[in-house]
Amino acid sequence: MQILEDISGITVLDISGETRVGTSPKVSVPVYGERIVEGFRIWDPHRSKMAALLIKSHLAGTFKRLVSDLNLTPSSKVLYLGAATGTTASHFSDLVPAGLVYAVEFSARSMRDLLVLCAARDNIIPILEDASSPERYSPILEPVDLVYQDVAQRNQAEIANRNVELYLKGGGALVLMIKARSIDVTADPRVVYKAEVERLGGVEVISVADLRPYHRDHWAVVARRVAES
Ligand SMILES: C[S@@+](CC[C@H](N)C(=O)[O-])C[C@H]1O[C@@H](n2cnc3c(N)ncnc32)[C@H](O)[C@@H]1O
């Protein structure tokens, strides 16, 4: 194993000729069956769109820029929309050991598994709510440094806009994973994702990346909240 890049707790590794990213947990215990290599939890790009984005950015030579755009520190606060059972949220939890991950998920079935993860990690706050009604979780939320969204809904940009407006700090980052086929199954996915990016408001789009070969018809948008003057 060889370390290729290591910034803000995200490590790019060469493992037997394969490029992977890993995070360093306080305790090296697998969460979703991922490999642990020399203390790193290997972030599976097939299971997590964020891992796919990070690997692709390394291969494109833009990893440093991407991680800097995320602007994460160990004490950052992350709002995670569509946490499911916590696969990707667990890696964010590794990245902000002194911070918090607010994990919003509306499926009670997924939440059951997420709660098991939260019991083992004191920096993930589970929120059983609909991300399209962000005002419902205002009593427990605070301004956050990063909004990460991965929900397969028709109105993905609208959900992002509402959460950004309520909770993202000025200058904070939005990472929006767009699943084009959830918006329109019949239209050309490239037309669909571009229209969805156009619908984003209150943010400046920094980059848009196609997540193939890991995730077909998915795009990752990285944006920054326009700071209020
Ligand atoms: C693709 S999965 C997320 C996978 C997860 N982000 C990961 O990488 O570990 C999408 C999740 O979003 C949840 N979801 C969809 N719409 C939602 C909404 N409006 N509010 C909250 N959760 C939602 C689904 O129940 C599902 O668990």
What does this molecule look like?
By secondary structure, the chain is an alpha/beta fold. The chain has a single domain, classed as 3-Layer(aba) Sandwich (Rossmann fold), CATH 3.40.50.150. It contains seven helices and twelve strands. A seven-stranded mixed sheet has the order 8-7-6-9-10-12-11. Strand 6, helix 3 and strand 7 form a beta-alpha-beta unit. Helix 1 crosses helix 2. The longest helix has 13 residues. The chain is globular and about 45 Å long. The termini are far apart. The mean pLDDT is 96. The site of S-adenosylmethionine has 17 residues, from helix 3 and strand 7.
Structural class: alpha/beta
Our measurement of the CA-to-CA distance between the termini, rounded to an integer number of angstroms, reads: 47 Å
Helix coverage percent of residues?
25-40%
User: What's the average pLDDT?
Assistant: 96
Largest sheet: 7 strands, mixed
Uncertain segments: none
- Rounded to an integer in angstroms, the radius of gyration calculated over CA atoms is 17 Å
- Using the 3D structure, state the CATH architecture: 3-Layer(aba) Sandwich
- What is the helix tally? 7
